Amino acid sequence: MKGMRALLDPKAIAVVGASPRPGPGSRVIANLRDAGFKGAIFAVNPRYPDVFGYKCFASVADLPKEVDCLVVAVAAETACGVLEAGQAHGIPAAVVLSAGFGEGGGPDARAHRVRAVADKGMAICGPNCFGIINVRSGAASFSGVAPKAMAAGNVALISQSGSLGNFAFGPLVRDRKLGFSHFISCGNQIGTTVEDYIDILVDDPAVSVIACVIEALKKPDKLMQAARRAHAQKKSLVFFQVGTSATGQVMIRSHTGALAGNTEILRAFLRKCGIVRADSYDQFVETIELLANVPFDLTLGDEVILVSGSGGSAAVAADCLDAAGLRLATLDAATSERLRAILPEFASPTNPIDATGVVYDDPALLPALFEAIFTQPGRPVIGATINVVPVDRLRRIAGAIANAAKASGRTVVAYQSSPLGPLDEEIVRTLHAANVPLLLGIQNAMGALRQLKRRRDFARAAANPSADSAPPAARGAAGPMPQDFMSARRTLAEAGIPIMEAALASSAQEALSIMRKLGEPVALKAEAVGLLHKSDLGCVTLNCKTEDEVIAGYHAVVANAKAAGFAPVRVLVQPMVAGVAECFAGIIHDPLYGPAIVFGLGGIFVELLREIVTEMAPLTTDDALRMIQRVKGAQILTGARGRPPGDVAALAECLVRLGRFAAANAGRFRALDLNPIIVRPKGEGVTAVDIAIEPVSGTQVGSAP
User: Fold this and answer.
1) Cβ proximity of 467 and 303 under 8 Å
2) β-strands 50-51, 54-57: how paired?
3) What is the DSSP letter of 248?
C-alpha cells in the first residue's frame, strides 16, 4: 500500500536519466515544473551538477532519503540496476519509461529482474509507458505531451496503450475542460496492473469515473471486488478493449471454445462486473465526457427525446439512435399538444423535435420547448443539438439548455453534429456547470447515450442482487468430468439438465433391440474416443424407421468412424425428437476469468452461423432470457411467421442450470457442448441431444454430431 500511495501521490521525485538535452528525462522534468508540483524534484545523472535548476546526483544511492518515487528514463539494460539500487535505498515506487523488456513475447531476463524487484515490494509502473500524472498535486511523472493547463476533477484514466490514453486525455482536458484526478499510462504491467490502480482509485472520494483502455486483464478477481465497491459508492467504470480481432484470439477444438474466444469471455466478464464497455474508441472518449457530467439516476427511462434546429441533423440522429439500440420516445397526446402550441405552424410536434431555424432567433422558444418536454412521462433522456462556436445566439442556446437541466434535475445532454473543433470555452463551461455533457459527432453521441442505460441497469442489478447470481459451492475433489455420453448424461441429469435418453450398442442386433425398446424412428451415432463433428465424417444416421435401416445405419456409421481412424467404435441409439428450433449451449472454463456459458441458434450449423452470445456463470433467469433475446433470429423461438412458439421459459431454465453446474464444477473440464438442444413447443420443454467434453488436459472425448 505504501508503494501504491507513493506511485500515485509522490512527495519527492527523482528522475534518473534527466538531461538538458531533448529526451524522456528532460520532458519529465519539464512536465513536473509546468504542472506545478510542490514536492521535491531531483535529477540523477553523473554528467551534470543540475538539470533545469534541479540538483543532480551521481547515482541513486546518493539521493536524499525523502525520495519516494523514481522515474527511470534510461535504457532497459541500465534500468534494472537502477530499480535494484532504488529498492536497496528504500524507495517504495518507480515509473519505468523505457521499453525492451520482452514486449514481443517469450521470456526476458530484464523483465524477470523487474518482476523480482516488484515481488519484493516496490510498486512499479511500466515498463514501456508514459508514466503517471496526478493532476491534483501536479506530480507529473510523465514523459508524454501533457496539457499546459489541467483542472483537477472526478475522472481517473488508466491506459495500457500510452498513445490511446493520451489521445483521450489531452483533448478532453484542452477542448472540453474536463477535470481529471489521474492519468496513468501503465505499459507492460510487470509490476502494478490496471486492477491495482482501480483498487486504490475506487475508494478515492474525489474520483467518480474510472476509465480504462485495456488489452487484457491480469487480476480479474481483484477487478470484480473493486467494481462491487464502485457500485456501492455510485461510481462509474468504463472500459475500451483493443486487440479484439480474430487473429488475437486463442481458440480450442470444441464448438464452445471455437465460438467464445478471449474477447467474448472478457466482454462477458466486464458485464458480470457491471462495467460499461464502449463499442469504439471514439465512443469511449464521448462516454467519459458523458458519465463524468451526468449524475447517477436509477429512475432514468429507456427512451430518448431529441431536440434539433435542423431537420436533417435530427433525422441522422434518429438513425444513429436506432443503430445504437435505443428508442425514440413516442410523445403522449398532452405533450404533443403543448408542443403544437409552442412550435411554428410549419413544424411538426413529433420526436425528434425540429425546433426549426426560429430557435436561433426567438429566445423564448427553447425554454418553452423544454417545459413541455419535461411533462412527458417516463423520464426520458433529452438530447439537444448545439454548435459550439463563439456566437452570442449559440451561447444563449447553451444557457437555455443549462438552465433547463438545472431547474428540472433531469438528464439533459448536448451534442454537436460535427466531431470537429475548435470549441467555444464559454459554451463548454456553461454546459458543464449544469452537469450537461457536450458530446461531439452525431454517431458518437448517440452510441454513447446507450451507456447511460447500461450504467443504470448495472447499478440496479448491484443494488438488488439475485439469489441466482451467487455462485454455488464447488464440488471439491470430484475429479475430472466423465467424458463418455452415458456417464456425462447421468452427471448432467443430476443437475437437472434435460438430456435425451439413449443406449449404447456393440452390435447391429443390440441396436435393433434398443430401437424396439425406445420406439422408432431412432438416430444412430458412432461413439469413440476423440470422435468429433460426426456429421461431417458420415458417423450419424438419422430417422431410422425399419430394422433394415437400423442394421444398415449401424454398419455405415461404424465403418465411417473406423475409416477416419477411430477405434474401438460403439453406436449410440437415441429416439428421434422434433421441435420448433435447434439451439446450442456450452460451457467454457477460462483459466483466468472462470466458467462462462455460450448460447446460440443453429444446432450443428452453429459454427457456420456464428450467432452466439456469452455470459459468465452462474446465470440468473434474467441473464438467461437476455442471452436468448440477444441472438439474431430469436424470433424463431417465439413464433415468427406462423411457427408455433417454443418453450423459451424451459430453455432459460436449462441455461440457468447449466450455469450453476459450470460454477459448481469449475476445473473439472475445459469445455462442454450440448448440441443440438431441441426446443419443443411452448409448455413441452427442451432436450439436449448430444454432449461433447474437452478435458482440462486438452484431449477431447464425446459425441458432438
Assistant:
1) no
2) antiparallel
3) G
How big is the CA angle at 91 (ends 112 and 211), to the nearest 5 degrees?
70
Architecture of domain 581-702 in CATH? 2-Layer Sandwich (3.30)
Q: What is the DSSP string of 437-448?
A: -EEESHHHHHHH
CA distance 571 to 549: 14
Q: Give DSSP secondary structure letters for 36-101.
A: T--SEEEEE-TT-SEETTEEEESSGGGS-TT--EEEE-S-HHHHHHHHHHHHHTT--EEEE----S
Cell of residue 438, nine digits: 457536450
Domain(s) of CATH 3.40.50.261: residues in the chain: 292-463
The pLDDT score that the predictor gives to residue 104 is 63
Provide the grid cell at 517. Answer: 425398446
Burial class (CB in 10 A: 0-12, 13-18, 19+), 519: exposed
Query: Omega of the bond prior to 64 within 30 degrees of 0, cis?
Result: no
C-alpha R_g of the chain: 31
Peptide bond into 465 cis (omega under 30): no
Residue ranges, comma separated, of all CATH 3.40.50.720 domains in the chain are 2-242
pLDDT of residue 249 exceeding 50: no
Q: Which residues contact 78 (CB under 8 A, 6 or more apart)?
A: none
Residues 489, 677 contacting (CB under 8 angstroms): no
Count of C-beta atoms within a 10 Å radius of residue 2:
11
The grid coordinates of residue 663 equal 460454477
The letter for the amino acid at 251 is M
Report yes or no: 258 and 219 within 8 Å, Cβ to Cβ.
Answer: no
The predicted-structure confidence for 98-138, as pLDDT tens digits, reads as follows 998 877 665 688 999 999 999 999 999 999 999 999 999 99
- Which residues lie across from 702 on neighbouring strands? 692
Distance CA 497, CA 686 (A): 9
Domain 2-242 is of which CATH architecture?
3-Layer(aba) Sandwich (3.40)
The neighbour count for residue 126, using CB atoms within 10 Å, is: 28
How many helices (H) and strands (E) would you count in the chain? 23, 31
Among 3.30.365.10, 3.40.50.150, 3.40.50.2300, 3.30.1490.20, name the CATH number for the domain at 501-575.
3.30.1490.20
SS3 414: strand
Question: How far is C-alpha 578 from the chain's CA centre?
Answer: 38
User: Which string of b and e fits 60-93 if b means at least 16 CB within 10 Å?
Assistant: beebeeebbbbbbbbebeebbebbbbbbebebbb
CA distance 705 to 701: 12
Query: Residue 311 CB: number of other CB atoms within 10 A?
Result: 15
- Pinpoint the residues of the chain covered by CATH 3.30.470.20: 581-702
Closest CA to 303 of 367, 384, 371, 383: 383
- Three-state DSSP string of 302-335: CEEEEEECCHHHHHHHHHHHHHCCCEECCCCHHH
**Architecture of the domain delimited by 292-463:** 3-Layer(aba) Sandwich (3.40)
Phi, psi (rounded to 5 degrees) for 480:
-60, 150
pLDDT at position 609: 67
Write down how long the chain is: 705
CA distance 71 to 43: 10
pTM above 0.70, yes or no: yes
Residue 123: its H or E element: strand 123-125
Q: List, in sequence order, every residue forming a beta bridge with 142; answer none if it has no partner.
A: 131
What mean pLDDT value characterizes the chain?
Answer: 92
Q: What is the DSSP letter of 280?
A: S
DSSP at 129 = S
In the chain, ranges of CATH 3.30.1490.20 domains: 501-575
292: cell is 463524468
∠ Cα 144 148 153 (to 5°): 95
Q: What is the pLDDT of residues 46-67, one digit of tens each?
A: 999 999 999 999 999 999 999 9
